[in-house]
Amino acid sequence: MSNSYPSREAGRPQGIVLVLGSSLTIMGSVMVAPIIPKLVAQFAPTEPQVDVLAPLAITGPALAIALFAPLAGWLADRVGRKIILVLATMLYALLGAAPALLQDLQSIVLARVLFGCAEAMVMTCCTTMIADYWFGAQRMRYINAQVVSIALVGSLFFVVGGALGEHSWRTPFYLYLLPLLLVIPMMKVLWEPMARAEEVESDDEGIDLVALVVGYLLILGGMILSFIVPVQAPTLMVQIGITSSTLIGVATGCGLLASLAGALLWPVIRGRIGIKATNAVLLGLLSFGLVLLINAGSLAGILVAVAVHGVGAGLLVPNAITPVMEALNTGSNGRGMGGFTSCLYLGQFISPIVVAIIIPMAGDLTNAIAVLAAVGFGFGALWLISCLVARTGYTAPSTTSAKK
């Protein structure tokens, strides 16, 4: 693809700021999830729709990201990445902390939806600037660092949010003010990698539309499979007699740690077998993890299942986003990454909806998950066949030269 390189050379300071900025996205849900029961208890006496509104405090931001990310990408291309990122980070902090001061559940849900819009801009701009600043092997390193940081921050703040929530459900929301510490470093070490889109030669014919669409479909489908475990595993655990919230939390933590392991393994696996074959592997792991999950009869079996599944989930994002970045040119990076972010969060949001649609046809939750696992195996097989036919995995020219 045709890329216009930034006028300066990006290094570790820019990488640290962008990776930390990317990690803000996982804070959107993990800190709030543990305090939902207290939120329900607080507003149940006065809010008749509490059972509908309380879950929206978690899912609302994901839907907002899915809907707003394409616009965020367009703004990044038209207005500029840096200014949007700085403003969005400040909005993220203020809107994230707002529920600590709000007195009714409807206002809290509204604040969370607007927070999701800010989150979409942060994620899109950080990923876009990684695509702008680096190419080839360097770009892959920062993509991987981005995924690893998201997993680490997610694990940390899941625990911290739960601990602070023991005192009051409002307390965890104040942690959203921490990103304000990133605003000054963003202003100092980052620079606008390109002029406004209308001032830059942006040849849409230079975009690899096939690779773009394939990448979007991969992350959408992959996230549907990925979110089956965190959403449906508690129900399956209760069905086999595991009702302890602590043990359910342990299973969730095991999945997060496994996704971190997958992200760390990604450069090695991709380097050995290539992008296409890695797609086959990650879809196979996601699907096999689901098969193990629905056949598990004990806590040990559940932990093995979420670990296998988690490794596949950790491979998914870096392996899907790399060909998408290579399919774009600098003038379209914002819109392209906005579309990718939208598909990622749309997959998260519709995962339980897809399962719910399949249940009546499959008979029960276990069979519905089995159907989706079979679909995952099928698409994994297609990637493997594609790889065998081509006798090589997908590699961008810059990546090939970097490997050599």
For the report, how would you describe the main beta sheet? none
Indicate the proportion of strand residues. Answer: under 5%
* SSE topology string: HHHHHHHHHHHHHH
Per CATH, the superfamily of the largest domain is: MFS general substrate transporter like domains
Low-confidence stretches: 1-6, 195-203, 393-404
Kindly provide the name of the CATH class of the largest domain. Answer: Mainly Alpha
Radius of gyration: 21 Å
Which range best describes the helical content: under 10%, 10-25%, 25-40%, 40-55%, 55-70% or over 70%?
Answer: over 70%
What's the CATH architecture of the largest domain?
Up-down Bundle
- According to DSSP, the number of beta strands is 0
> How many helices does DSSP assign?
14
Task: Report the span from N to C terminus.
Answer: 20 Å
**pLDDT average, as an integer?**
84
User: What structural class do the secondary elements suggest?
Assistant: mainly alpha
Structure, briefly:
This protein has helices at residues 12-30, 36-43, 50-78, 81-97, 105-133, 136-165, 180-189, 209-226, 228-239, 245-295, 299-327, 333-362, 365-390, 397-403. With 404 residues, it is an all-alpha fold.
